[in-house]
Protein backbone atom coordinates (compact mmCIF):
# COMPACT_ATOMS: atom_id res chain seq x y z
CA UNK A 1 0.00 0.00 0.00
CA UNK A 2 2.88 2.37 0.78
CA UNK A 3 4.35 1.79 -2.68
CA UNK A 4 1.04 2.64 -4.36
CA UNK A 5 0.68 5.82 -2.28
CA UNK A 6 4.29 6.85 -2.99
CA UNK A 7 3.78 6.22 -6.71
CA UNK A 8 0.63 8.38 -6.78
CA UNK A 9 2.38 11.20 -4.90
CA UNK A 10 5.34 11.03 -7.31
CA UNK A 11 3.06 11.14 -10.38
CA UNK A 12 1.12 14.10 -8.99
CA UNK A 13 4.38 15.93 -8.22
CA UNK A 14 5.74 15.28 -11.72
CA UNK A 15 2.47 16.43 -13.32
CA UNK A 16 2.46 19.64 -11.26
CA UNK A 17 6.00 20.47 -12.40
CA UNK A 18 5.10 20.27 -16.08
CA UNK A 19 1.74 22.04 -15.62
CA UNK A 20 3.07 25.08 -13.77
CA UNK A 21 6.33 25.40 -15.63
CA UNK A 22 7.53 28.93 -16.35
CA UNK A 23 9.10 29.52 -19.74
CA UNK A 24 11.96 32.02 -20.09
CA UNK A 25 13.96 33.17 -23.11
CA UNK A 26 16.39 36.04 -23.47
CA UNK A 27 18.56 37.80 -25.99
CA UNK A 28 20.40 40.99 -26.83
CA UNK A 29 19.86 43.92 -29.16
CA UNK A 30 22.15 46.55 -30.63
CA UNK A 31 21.22 49.24 -33.12
CA UNK A 32 23.38 52.06 -34.43
CA UNK A 33 23.51 54.64 -37.17
CA UNK A 34 25.05 51.88 -39.32
CA UNK A 35 21.68 50.04 -39.31
CA UNK A 36 19.13 50.73 -42.01
CA UNK A 37 16.24 53.03 -40.99
CA UNK A 38 18.06 54.19 -37.82
CA UNK A 39 17.16 57.83 -37.17
CA UNK A 40 17.97 58.37 -33.49
CA UNK A 41 21.24 60.15 -34.34
CA UNK A 42 19.86 62.88 -36.59
CA UNK A 43 17.44 65.80 -36.46
CA UNK A 44 15.33 66.86 -33.49
CA UNK A 45 11.89 66.10 -32.13
CA UNK A 46 10.26 62.73 -31.66
CA UNK A 47 11.97 59.87 -33.52
CA UNK A 48 11.18 56.16 -33.27
CA UNK A 49 12.87 53.11 -34.73
CA UNK A 50 11.26 49.66 -34.84
CA UNK A 51 13.01 46.30 -34.98
CA UNK A 52 11.42 42.85 -35.05
CA UNK A 53 12.73 40.35 -32.51
CA UNK A 54 11.88 36.66 -33.05
CA UNK A 55 12.02 34.21 -30.16
CA UNK A 56 14.34 31.23 -30.73
CA UNK A 57 11.43 28.94 -29.83
CA UNK A 58 7.73 29.94 -29.79
CA UNK A 59 6.12 30.17 -26.36
CA UNK A 60 3.09 28.10 -25.38
CA UNK A 61 1.25 31.33 -24.54
CA UNK A 62 1.90 35.05 -24.96
CA UNK A 63 4.85 36.08 -22.74
CA UNK A 64 5.65 39.30 -20.95
CA UNK A 65 8.79 41.10 -22.19
CA UNK A 66 11.28 43.10 -20.15
CA UNK A 67 13.81 45.41 -21.87
CA UNK A 68 17.06 46.39 -20.16
CA UNK A 69 19.32 49.01 -21.78
CA UNK A 70 23.04 48.42 -21.24
CA UNK A 71 24.65 50.68 -23.84
CA UNK A 72 23.81 54.20 -24.92
CA UNK A 73 26.15 56.17 -27.15
CA UNK A 74 24.76 59.70 -26.93
CA UNK A 75 26.13 62.96 -28.24
CA UNK A 76 27.58 64.89 -25.29
CA UNK A 77 25.88 68.13 -26.31
CA UNK A 78 22.33 66.73 -26.06
CA UNK A 79 19.97 65.74 -23.25
CA UNK A 80 19.38 62.01 -22.76
CA UNK A 81 15.68 61.33 -23.27
CA UNK A 82 14.60 57.89 -24.43
CA UNK A 83 11.99 55.18 -24.08
CA UNK A 84 12.21 51.46 -24.89
CA UNK A 85 9.01 49.51 -25.40
CA UNK A 86 8.00 46.01 -26.49
CA UNK A 87 5.03 46.25 -28.85
CA UNK A 88 3.00 43.60 -30.64
CA UNK A 89 4.12 40.82 -28.31
CA UNK A 90 3.08 37.36 -29.52
CA UNK A 91 4.11 33.75 -28.93
CA UNK A 92 6.66 34.12 -31.77
CA UNK A 93 8.27 37.49 -31.00
CA UNK A 94 7.76 41.22 -30.55
CA UNK A 95 8.62 44.61 -32.00
CA UNK A 96 11.21 46.63 -30.08
CA UNK A 97 10.47 50.36 -30.20
CA UNK A 98 13.29 52.79 -29.34
CA UNK A 99 12.20 56.41 -29.06
CA UNK A 100 14.02 59.69 -28.43
CA UNK A 101 12.73 63.26 -28.45
CA UNK A 102 13.90 66.84 -28.17
CA UNK A 103 17.56 67.35 -29.00
CA UNK A 104 18.58 63.82 -27.92
CA UNK A 105 20.94 62.16 -30.37
CA UNK A 106 21.96 58.50 -29.95
CA UNK A 107 24.66 57.07 -32.17
CA UNK A 108 23.81 53.61 -30.80
CA UNK A 109 21.63 51.83 -28.25
CA UNK A 110 21.87 48.26 -27.03
CA UNK A 111 20.75 45.99 -24.25
CA UNK A 112 19.01 42.80 -23.24
CA UNK A 113 15.50 41.46 -23.49
CA UNK A 114 13.87 38.82 -21.30
CA UNK A 115 10.59 37.13 -22.20
CA UNK A 116 8.72 34.99 -19.66
CA UNK A 117 5.35 33.42 -19.06
CA UNK A 118 3.60 33.61 -15.73
CA UNK A 119 2.85 30.59 -13.59
From TrEMBL:
Residues of the H-type lectin domain: 52-116
Query: Which biological processes are named by the entry's GO terms?
Result: cell adhesion
Molecular function (GO) terms listed?
A: carbohydrate binding
User: Which keywords are on file for this protein?
Assistant: Signal
May I ask which residue range the UniProt record assigns to the signal sequence? 1-20
Source superkingdom: Bacteria
What this protein is called in its record is: H-type lectin domain-containing protein
- Identify the species of origin: Stygiobacter electus
Amino acid sequence: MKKVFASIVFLLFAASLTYGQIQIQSGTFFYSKDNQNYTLHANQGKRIVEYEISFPKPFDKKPKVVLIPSLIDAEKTSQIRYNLKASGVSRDGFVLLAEVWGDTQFNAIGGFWLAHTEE
